[in-house]
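To assess whether ligand presence alters the predicted conformation, the chain was also submitted together with PZK. Input:
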Amino acid sequence: MPETLTHVASGKVRELFTIDDERLLLVASDRISTFDVVLPTEIPDKGRVLTGLSAFWFARTRDVCANHLLGLRADGRSTECRRLEMLPLECVVRGYLAGSGWKDYQRTGATSGHQLPEGLRESDRLPEPIFTPSTKEDVGHDQNISFDEMVALVGAARFAEAERLAIALYQFAADYARARGIIIADTKFELGLDADGTLVLADEAFTPDSSRFWPADEYAPGGPQPSFDKQFVRDYCEALGWDKTPPGPELPDDVVAGTRARYVEAFERLTGIGFDEYLADPEVVSR
Ligand code: PZK
């Protein structure tokens, strides 16, 4: 009998459904966004690459932090997960100075309450990774918030625990990835509480959609870095002179093929597993 699922939420490129009271189904599409706009052209297998990578990290980090993963479906893009009480904040960890962290630093010498050394350049590695959580915004960009606002949202003890887990998770994944030629400059994840009140890693983990992936062999601080996964798309869009407002442009076949190859390359470098092995049996990443 076909399964009936209730749709509960849509992200830009993912969908969330209810399976039952305890379980959700997270489905990653092949849609791609750039400059915050979802493009009309899909990247074949992108959703499978991101689903497999996330499940790989969940398996590798289970001794660092519990996670919501129950199992992968045979389609390779659908994750069955435990339903949690989500914390009302996005856990952001930065190991390098990019994006809004770099913007804040240029203005104030600090980001999210972390005073940083003088003289840092764009994309420099930070002395230590820092926790810079933000609020969840339904529309537009997440807002950076102060320590006091954060403590008011979740309480001091919960905040300290989230910070400790977030930094430990980032340290693990960033070291692992750096040894395989990929810099994870920063990352964002979501934590939830299970019925026992334990903090649990949810959503996606250390994918190129939730993190900045940079090719380590091209790393040159002092300016912006190329994106491991989306650089062909960005270059194409810049060359078109598109104004970065919707609708975005269709992508030509060579940009699609080159971008798909980069996603598959990230998957294979990080997991050490062939992508065709993953397609044949998605659970290979969890063993
Ligand atoms: C949950 N999101 C964000 C992700 C979307 C929206 N395990 C969980 N338990 C309860 N809630 C969530 C999760 C997870 N993961 C995650 N919203 C709720 C989100 C993907 C697509 F539309």
